[in-house]
Amino acid sequence: MWKFGLYLSFLFSLSSAELTIRAISDKRLSFGYIPHWDASKQSLYVTNALISLIRYDAVTKQLYEGTFTDPNFEIDFFLPTNDCQDCFVASHGLDVYIVHWDGFNSNVTFVRKMTELSGIENLTYVNTAKMDPNNRLLVATWRYDRCNPNGGSPDGSVYLVEADGQTKEIIGGALYPSGLEWDVSASKMYYIDICQLNIKSYDWSIVDGTVRNPKIIYDFRDDFPIDPPVSYYLPVGSNINFDGNLMVALFNTSTIVEINPTTGKLVRTIEMPAETVTGAIYGSKDTLFVTSSVRKSSFDGQKHANSNNPESGKIFIINGLSSGSGAYSHPSFFCFIVILFCKHKMFT
């Protein structure tokens, strides 16, 4: 397979002897994603797609789980907001809400509806959401059939959502938006489209959050040839570190990659115990959290199955990275992952 040839020849790949990788608990999440580190609370937040909210307390080493009082609410994402104490932004379908969870008890309650995004019910889905360095909310949508070569024109979008619920489209014609990240010093935003298997950079305005001048800076196929259905992967999420490099998970594989967006080169790879990694975020310069999923998907996204790997679905912590890249995560950072692969309505 493509991975083995690459790792044998790649000088900078990390060996397991250089890293310590362990699961933070034995709990397996159906689709764990959107890891978000809150330094003030020393807590890692993870979404268990459509099911629950997860908090890991790094001080007490305890794991907490919250669920919605409304059993029909299937959560697509959640992330902290300053709207009120212990409040989060969360989405269900195309609706975005403010919700409350104290991080200890199991009950998650609604505060108010924030906005409704444009799209077609049961066809358009929220797929990516993230706060930019100025704490502005970005939410991205896609249509589940748009990676299909027989599909119509791409009509996914990335929206800037204001505090009053007003929305502005900043990227249109998207296929499958996945990763959003910013380099404040360079005034750049980085954007991953799963279907296009590349990373684009945009000139980013710190004043109003808009972007312009897209440029492809890295193509995953240059280092990771794809040959569906034998070998395939889906690049998801991104987290920038002190070196200005992007950490990206290759869903449907066990691989985390580090990309230099300036040179457009692969810096290194990390192999995880889980079969299906879904995201990564630094908790400190020496600590990287990695999420994974029990669910895996076929190349066309139409077939779903569970991984037989007993480590899949666990949350991992990696130590020993300080000799290489350090962490830079702006306070509202979280990396986002594919939602629709775990939509129960499509499990056929």
Please explain how this structure is put together:
With 348 residues, the chain is an all-beta fold. The protein is built from one helix and 26 strands. The protein has an eight-stranded mixed β-sheet, with no helix packed on it. Strands 1-26-23-22 form a four-stranded antiparallel β-sheet, with no helix packed on it. Strands 10-11-12-13 form a four-stranded antiparallel β-sheet, with no helix packed on it. A hairpin with a 4-residue loop joins strand 14 and strand 15. The two termini are 28 Å apart.
Low-confidence stretches: 1-17, 323-328, 330-348
Compute the number of strand runs. 26
Cα separation of the termini: 28 Å
User: What string gives the helices and strands in order?
Assistant: HEEEEEEEEEEEEEEEEEEEEEEEEEE
* Major beta sheet, strand line-up: 2-3-4-5-9-8-7-6
Name the descriptors.
348 residues, disordered N terminus
Please outline what is shown here.
This protein is mainly beta.
Layout of helices and strands, plus pairs?
Elements: H1 2-9, E1 20-23, E2 32-38, E3 43-48, E4 52-57, E5 62-68, E6 77-81, E7 87-92, E8 95-100, E9 107-116, E10 124-131, E11 137-143, E12 156-161, E13 167-174, E14 177-183, E15 188-193, E16 198-204, E17 211-219, E18 234-240, E19 246-251, E20 255-260, E21 265-271, E22 277-284, E23 287-292, E24 295-297, E25 304-306, E26 316-319
Parallel strand pairs: 5-9
Antiparallel strand pairs: 1-26, 2-3, 3-4, 4-5, 6-7, 7-8, 8-9, 10-11, 11-12, 12-13, 14-15, 15-16, 16-17, 18-19, 19-20, 20-21, 22-23, 23-26, 24-25
